[in-house]
Amino acid sequence: MRPEVFCLGAINLDLTFRVDDLAGLLIGLNLPQAARLAEAAAAYKLGGPGRQGYPDREVMERIIARLR
């Protein structure tokens, strides 16, 4: 894999984790739950390239329901 492709992939995963960690806190999850939400979203992101890999609302709601 070319280094620039790997770098962009790592940046996308980092941003996915950070955004979903913050989102979890904003919807009232505690810190460990928010971290698990962020981990699940980042793992889901690995499933597809670009925007295709981001979890949609339905996926996020299923993950959140499991955390509560």
Brief account:
74% of the residues lie in helices and 0% in strands. It contains three helices and no strands. It is globular.
Mean pLDDT: 78
Largest sheet, strands/sense/barrel: none
Based on CA atoms alone, the radius of gyration comes out at 12 Å
Q: Which residues sit in consecutive blocks of at least 5 with pLDDT less than 50? A: 3-8
**What is the count of DSSP helices, taking H or I runs of 4+ residues?**
3
Describe the structure.
- This protein has one domain (3-67).
- 74% of the residues lie in helices and 0% in strands.
- It has helices at 3-26, 31-45, 57-67.
- Helix 1 runs antiparallel to helix 2 and helix 2 (31-45) packs antiparallel against helix 3.
- The longest helix is centred in the first third of the chain and has 24 residues, at 3-26.
